[in-house]
Amino acid sequence: MESVKGNLLEKINSPADLKKLSKSELKNVCKELRDYIIDVVSTNPGHFGASLGVVELTVALHYVYNTPYDQLIWDVGHQAYGHKILTGRRDNFDTNRKYKGLSGFPKRSESPYDAFGVGHSSTSISAALGMAIASRIKNENDRKVVAVIGDGAMTGGMAFEALNNAGGENADLLVILNDNNMAIDPSVGGLNKYLLNISKSDTYNRFKHDVWEGLGKLDGIGRKTRAFIQKNQHALKNMLLKENNLFEAFNFRYFGPVDGHDVQYLTEVLEDLREIPGPKLLHLITQKGKGFPFAEKDQIKWHAPGIFDKETGEIHRCNCEAEMAPKFQNVFGETLVELAEQNEKIVGITPAMPTGCSMNQMIKQMPHRAFDVGIAEQHAVTFSAGLAAQGMVPFCNIYSTFMQRAYDQVIHDVAIQKLHVIFCLDRGGLVGEDGPTHHGVFDIAYMRTVPNMIVSAPMDEVDLRNLMYTAQLDENAQPFSIRYPRGCGIKPDWKQAFEKIEIGKGRKISDGNDVAILTIGKSGIFALDAVKSLASENISAAHYDLRFVKPLDEELLTEVFTKFDKVVTVEDGAIQGGFGSAILEFMAAKGYSARIKLLGIPDHFIEHGTTEDLYKECGIDTNGIKKGVLDILGK
Ligand SMILES: Cc1ncc(C[n+]2csc(CCOP(=O)(O)OP(=O)(O)O)c2C)c(N)n1
Ligand SMILES: CC(=O)[C@@H](O)[C@H](O)COP(=O)(O)O
Ligand SMILES: [Mg+2]
C-alpha cells in the first residue's frame, strides 16, 4: 500500500473534509492527489494519463458541489481515480482493478458518489439528463447534476442525441467538456478542428481574459460583474466571434474555454455556474498526463502504460511479449497491411482504437485507405457498408464489447444487403481488469443469429491470418466476422504463407475414445493442456477445434456424434446462445443423443480481475475443462 505524501490528502476521507479547507490550500491538495495517483498506478497498472489530466477539475467539483446529493457522472470513467480517492476510497485504492477489489470505473454498487456506472463512452450526458429531469419531477430544485465528458467521448453520436434532448428540455445540468485534444490516440474529425478553433481564437480569449482578470481584482462588484458576463457571455461571444457556437445551437449556454489546471479559478467558475439555471456547457482545456512529464510527452503510450518506474519512466513489458508470442492485435495489424498491399480494394476502419487494435500500422503506411472515425461504432459499421457497396473490402475492427453499440447497423446496413464487410472483433472473450463493461462475451451469440453472416474464431495467430486472408477473397464476398482475444497467442512463428480455409471447416486436433472436447477460438489452447492432463490419468479425450460457429462443420460433427456419447463444448463467451448452443441445435436437428456439457460464461456479469482469475472462476481454463470432462465421465 503506497503511503500518502503530505498531510492534506491523508485527512480527506470525503468531500466534506475537502470543503473544510481554504481555496488557497486546494493547490496543495491537487499536488498530493496527483502524486498519489502516480505512486499507486506505477505499481498497480490501470488507466493513467486521463486521471492526471482532471486532478484540478476533480478537486474543484467536489469542493463546490454537494456530492453525492449533487450528482457527478464521468464519461467513460477511466479518468475517475482522483474522484475515487477523494470519496472514501483512498486507503483501498491499491485494490483498483484487482480481483474482488475496486472497479477501474465508477460503479453505483461501489459508492454513493458513483452516480452512474460507466466504461463505454458517450453515455454521461444522457444519464445526467435523466437525473436532471427526475430531480425536476421530484421538485428537488437545489439538486445539481454534472456530466464530465472528454473531447473524444464527445465524438460519440449518443452525446449529440443527449445535447439535443437536453437543450429541448431546457434541463438544469452542467456538461463539462474536458478538451485535451486526445482520445486514446489523437482526437479526430470536424469537432476536433472546431474545438481547436474556439480554443485558439485570440480575439475572444484575449478579451475574455483581460476583462475577467481585471474584474478579478475587484472583489464584490467584480464577482457580480463576472457572473453577469458569464450569464450573457454567449451574446458577447457571438458579437466578438461573429459565429454561432455549436453548443449554443443546442440551446446550451457555452462558457469557456477555461484553463482546466487552475484549481482556484475553476472553483470560482463552478461556483458561478452552479447558480445559473438551464443547460450549460463549460469548455475546459486540459493536458492528458498533466504533471508527469513522460505522460505529457507520449500521451498514447501513457493512456494505460502498465507497470512503470516513476523515476525513469521505464514501462515493464507484458510477459507474453517477452516470450516472443505476439499479441493477436499485432498479428491483425501486420496481416492487414500485408493483405492491403496485395489487394487494393482493402480498406481499414477503426472507431478510435487505432493503437488498441494495431490498425495504426495501416493508418501510418496507407493513410488514404485506413480511417479512424472517432468513437463512433454505429457510424463505423455503416461507413464500412457504404465502402463495400462501392466495391471496397472493408476490414472493420471493433472491440467485441464496443460492437454491441452497432448491432442494428450490422443487421440493417450490412447483412440484409449481404455486403462484403469483414468484422474483426478484437478483445473477444474475457478481457480481465476492465471488467464487465469491457468483456467481449456476447459476440458469438449476437453474431451467429444474423443471416448471411459467417462467424469464425481462430485458435491461434496462424489461423487468424488465414481467416483474414480467406475473408477478403472475392469468392467469400459476404459479411464475415472473426473474433479473437486480448493479449498473446502461442505461435512465435506465426508469419507463415497464407492458406485459404474452406468456409465452415473445423479440424480434429487430437484423437481419443472416452470423450470429445469441442472448442472455438482461444479456448482450444486450454484444451490442449487439458487433454494432456487427462491422458496422464488414462482418460482418452479427443479434441476438435470447430473454427467456425456458422456455418458449422457438419461432417466433423457427424463424426463426433457417431463416435462419442459424451461431449464437452468450451467457449470464452456466453453459454446462452453461443457456440455450445449451436452444437445443441445441431444435435437436435440431426437426432443425435449424447450427454453434453457446455462450458463458458454463465448467465451473470463477470467482474474484473486477471484473465487467469476469471477463466478459473468460469471453469474454462485447463483445470476447468478437465473438471468438466471428469464430471461428464462420472469420475
Ligand atoms: C463505446 C466506446 N468506444 C471506445 C472506447 C475506448 N476508449 C476508452 S477511453 C477512449 C478515449 C476517450 O477520449 P476522451 O473522452 O477525450 O477522454 P481522455 O482519455 O482524453 O481523457 C476510448 C476511445 C470506449 N470506452 N467506449
Ligand atoms: C477505457 C477504455 O475503454 C479503454 O482504454 C480500454 O480499457 C482499452 O482496452 P485495452 O487495454 O484492451 O486496449
Ligand atoms: Mg480527450
Automatic annotation (TrEMBL):
GO terms for molecular function: 1-deoxy-D-xylulose-5-phosphate synthase activity; magnesium ion binding; thiamine pyrophosphate binding. Keywords: Isoprene biosynthesis, Magnesium, Metal-binding, Thiamine biosynthesis, Thiamine pyrophosphate, Transferase. Pathway: Metabolic intermediate biosynthesis; 1-deoxy-D-xylulose 5-phosphate biosynthesis; 1-deoxy-D-xylulose 5-phosphate from D-glyceraldehyde 3-phosphate and pyruvate: step 1/1. The keyword Acetylation does not apply. It catalyses: D-glyceraldehyde 3-phosphate + pyruvate + H(+) = 1-deoxy-D-xylulose 5-phosphate + CO2. The keyword Transferase applies. Its cofactor is Mg(2+); thiamine diphosphate. InterPro entries: Dxylulose-5-P_synthase, THDP-binding, Transketo_C/PFOR_II, Transketolase-like_Pyr-bd, Transketolase_BS, Transketolase_C. GO terms for cellular component: cytosol. It is an enzyme of class 2 (transferase). Mg(2+) binds at D151, N180. CDD domains: TPP_DXS, TPP_PYR_DXS_TK_like. Pfam families: DXP_synthase_N, Transket_pyr, Transketolase_C. Residues 326-492 form the Transketolase-like pyrimidine-binding domain. Thiamine diphosphate binds at H78, G119, H120, S121, G152, A153, N180, F292, E377. SMART domains: Transket_pyr. Its EC number is 2.2.1.7. GO terms for biological process: isopentenyl diphosphate biosynthetic process, methylerythritol 4-phosphate pathway; terpenoid biosynthetic process; thiamine biosynthetic process. Binds 1 Mg(2+) ion per subunit. Binds 1 thiamine pyrophosphate per subunit. Catalyzes the acyloin condensation reaction between C atoms 2 and 3 of pyruvate and glyceraldehyde 3-phosphate to yield 1-deoxy-D-xylulose-5-phosphate (DXP). NCBIfam families: dxs, PRK05444.2-2. Homodimer. Belongs to the transketolase family. DXPS subfamily. This is 1-deoxy-D-xylulose-5-phosphate synthase. It comes from Maribellus luteus. The gene is dxs.
